[in-house]
Amino acid sequence: MADDQEAELAALIRKKWRVGGVLTAIMMAAYFGFILLVAFGKDTAGTLLADDRISVGIVLGAVVILIAPILTAIYVRWANHQHDPPMAKLRSDRKKQQP
Amino acid sequence: MSTLGQTNTDAIAWFLGFVLITLGITYWAARRTRTTREYFAAGERISAVQNGFALAGDYMSAASFLGIAGLVATSGFDGLIYSVGWLVGWPVITFLIAEPLRNLGKYTFADVVAYRLKQKPVRIAAAASTLTVVTFYLIAQMVGAGNLIKLMFGLSYESALVLVGAVMLAYVLFGGMIATTWVQIIKAVLLLAGATLLAVLVLREFGWNPLNLFAAARDEYGAATLAPGKLVANPLEAVSLGIALMFGCAGLPHILMRFYTVPDAATARRSVAYATSLIGFFYLVTFILGFGASVLVGRKAITAVDAGGNMAAPLLAEVLGGTGFLGFISAVAFATILAVVAGLTLSGAAALAHDLWGHVVRKGKVDEAEQMKVARWATVGLAIVAIGLGLVFQGQNVAFMVGLAFSIAASANFPALLLSMLWGKLTTRGAVASMVTGTVSSLVLILLSPTVWKELLHFDEAVIPLKNPGIITVPLSFLVAIVVSLAKPEPEAQEGFKAAQRRMHLGPE
Phi/psi of residue A49, each to 5°? Predict the structure, then answer.
């Protein structure tokens, strides 16, 4: 593999781990934030909303459940549109160079 | 009065229908299962949507369907903490694990860890942790199966175990991953359809508005039922369990194995996205079922049938749809257990036949026919072990074993797997030390925890106050891997990292 391709691949890999890492951090923040709120802020989590028909805790729990597939969808979109095309190009360039 | 526990002809009819159809599929799959690539990876021909449903079917156990609905029904909001916890590992699998795993491995996660390291020690350590996870998970499933089937069908515990073991063995032994995949897909569809229908029937009673349902629960059991209760008494405990659930999911051998059944990394990635949506939807629905059961069936009636509350969803089905619907839901719960047990057995068989026999005994030079034979014998062995352990642990409280399985998966499998993909300096010793540390520390700390030390062995005070050791064992495994690797570098392993990285991201060439 030529040097510039090598460098491009390394940059793409770094980018991919960075995107995955940031999204993992968001998921962790949402989930552990929810857990810590439930543990330390029982009164806040138990506050009733909408004519006392639902609690803050239930709303936030449902939000964390919804965040999971939303983040996953964002990642898949990113990977399909931003990551796969340059990777595919690298792959085909490499094939061409091989005898 | 509920008819639970009496012979329910609808349940038996639904269940027989399920078994007949799935055995028919197994017959069809058996003719397509000749090589180990077909036996363990379904010939890598599963599509993203199919694998999404199969992953959901592999993961959503009876514990999450009946257990969480029961927990919500009997203790309100606290059950939601579990629903959330069971889901949050899936995005982590998507972001960090699925694609490199698919590109680097063949049948097991050890393929990935051992890729540029010394095969023998890594394979042995990975197989040991895999088999430990699979064993504990199997015990929990089998004991749960025996109890549930006894309650729902009026069948004896022993015959229930033999029935589950025998049907599962037929799927896996003859139809391998192809049959297992379809069993999991059908189960996921049935489970999602059953739960959704049940939730629709609940919401109909409350003017199609979940808020009215919560309000009814509040009227009956007080505002506390919508607020955090006793489950999270200790914040450290909650975070520790959260760590085990989140990262354990990304280290479960039977889940990881499913990514080898799709043709490429992009399909693997899309399949987890489908799975995450399906599982997330399912947990939202379980929440409606739990509150619905607490209002429409009543907590007293639920705990009268089963103290753990596990019968909340089936009882709700009976109240809303009569014995016919109860029969359907019972059969779905049965199918759910079969699909999970089949996936577990197959991943255990892969560790035995591929990691231990293929790479340790035969050093990677194994004849295809011979490996197939070993795989089938391993499957038979695991089925016998599963039934045997189910009998041994009859009447025991085995709920902690699922937590233990997640804890070992999170601390023995996840750190080694992630570091092998991400960190070039990881050495054979580092990976092995990390996997051994994760397995042993989880086992020891659970033994010393309140669940086993106090509740099972009846000592006064637990040595370790944590019920789940994730907060200690996961960082410890990472630390051990890093320190041991840095202490004595392995130049060959580091040289191999570039090639491994290329394959991990560009795919096999």
Answer: -125, 170
Q: Which residues of B touch A35 (CB under 8 A)?
A: 81, 232, 235, 238-239, 242
Q: Which of A18, A37, A55 should we substitute to test contact with B (largest number of B Cβ atoms within 10 Å)?
A: A55
Residue B201: count of CB within 10 angstroms of its CB: 18
Could A24 and B91 be called an inter-chain contact, meaning their C-beta atoms sit closer than 8 Å? yes
Are the Cβ atoms of A17 and B283 closer than 8 angstroms?
no
**Looking at residue B183, what is its pLDDT?**
95
Distances (CA, A) of A99 to A89, A91, A95, B498, B507: 18, 14, 8, 22, 19
> Considering only CB atoms, which chain B residues are within 8 Å of A31?
84-85, 88, 242, 246
pLDDT in tens, B141-176: 998 888 888 877 788 899 999 999 999 999 999 999
- Spatial separation of the C-alpha atoms in residues B281 and B53, rounded to whole Å: 12
- Does A17 contact B422 at a Cβ distance shorter than 8 Å? yes
Q: What is the DSSP string of B340-367?
A: HHHHHHHHHHHIIIIIIIIIIISTT---
Domains observed in chain B:
9-506 (1.20.1730.10)
For residues B215 and B221, give the distance between their C-alpha atoms in angstroms, rounded to a whole number: 10
Is residue B4 classed as helix, strand or coil in its secondary structure? coil
Residues 25-84 of A with CB under 8 A from B: 27-28, 30-32, 34-36, 38-40, 42, 45-46, 48, 50-55, 57-58, 61-62, 64-66, 68-69, 71-73, 75-76, 79-80, 84
Q: At what angle do helices B210-221 and B157-205 cross, to 10 degrees?
A: 110
Compare all CA atoms of chain B with the CA of A40 and give the residue at the minimum distance: B235
Question: How far from B385 is each of B165, B349, B378, B452, CA to CA, in Å?
Answer: 10, 12, 10, 22
Phi, psi (degrees; rounded to nearest 5) at B2: -85, 150
**ipTM computed for the complex:** 0.94
Please name the residue ranges forming H helices in B108-118.
Answer: 110-113
Residue partners of B130: CB distance under 8 A and separation at least 6? B108, B109, B110, B253, B347, B348, B351, B355, B413
Would you list the domain boundaries of chain A? 21-92
Residue of A nearest to B284 (CA): A62
In terms of DSSP H, where are the helices of A1-99? 3-40, 42-46, 56-78, 84-97
Instruction: Say yes or no for a CB contact (<8 Å) between B226 and A48.
Output: yes
CA angle B380, B435, B491 (to 5 degrees): 120
Task: Check CB contact under 8 Å for B226 and A57.
Answer: yes
For the stretch B215-251, pLDDT in tens is 999 999 988 889 888 777 788 888 898 999 999 999 9
CB B472 within 8 A of CB B466: yes
